[in-house]
Design a protein that fits this description.
4-stranded antiparallel sheet; 13 strands; mainly beta; single chain
Length: about 150
């Protein structure tokens, strides 16, 4: 689809959701108003971020602490066999809920970690598979409360 922002893939009418222990759920429609169809891709992808790369390949990053990269099939029927790999090993302070970007030829993964309280981490690499350098971009965010998400209610 051609737009004022350039070419957008037809998957713009797809919604993805991971359901713990039930796999990656894909909802598709030709029109955002529906009707929608549902497909379960399976797998154990946790808190994924999706990237539609310049080469028209679709990638997801997922995991807590240890960040995995996996390629999705273009029709969202499953994963490209043998494509999953660890791109950021445990111990590099990456959290969960990844956001995956490519900006000016560099790859960025931003994640949140609840321990210590409210830390946001960013990883950056020249290549999709790394190596990634990681830095803290926000630390001890409390969400406006004294102890952040640990507040008693």
């Amino acid at each position: 689809m051609e737009t004022e922002y350039g070419h957008l893939p037809s998957v713009i009418t797809k919604a993805l959701s991971n359901v713990n222990d039930h796999g990656l759920q894909v909802f598709s429609a030709k029109n955002p108003a529906g009707p929608w169809t549902h497909k379960n891709m399976g797998g154990r992808i946790y808190d994924l971020g999706i990237l539609f790369d310049d080469d028209d390949k679709i990638y997801a990053v997922h995991g807590y602490d240890e960040v995995h990269l996996i390629q999705l099939k273009p029709d969202f029927s499953g994963y490209v066999e043998g494509s999953e790999k660890v791109i950021i090993p445990k111990g590099n302070a990456m959290g969960e809920g990844h956001h995956f970007y490519k900006i000016d030829g560099k790859y960025y993964i931003i994640s949140a970690d609840y321990a210590p309280v409210g830390r946001m981490q960013c990883a950056r690499a020249d290549k999709l598979e790394g190596p990634y350098e990681t830095v803290v971009i926000s630390n001890r965010e409390t969400m406006g409360t004294q102890r952040g998400w640990w507040t008693k209610g």
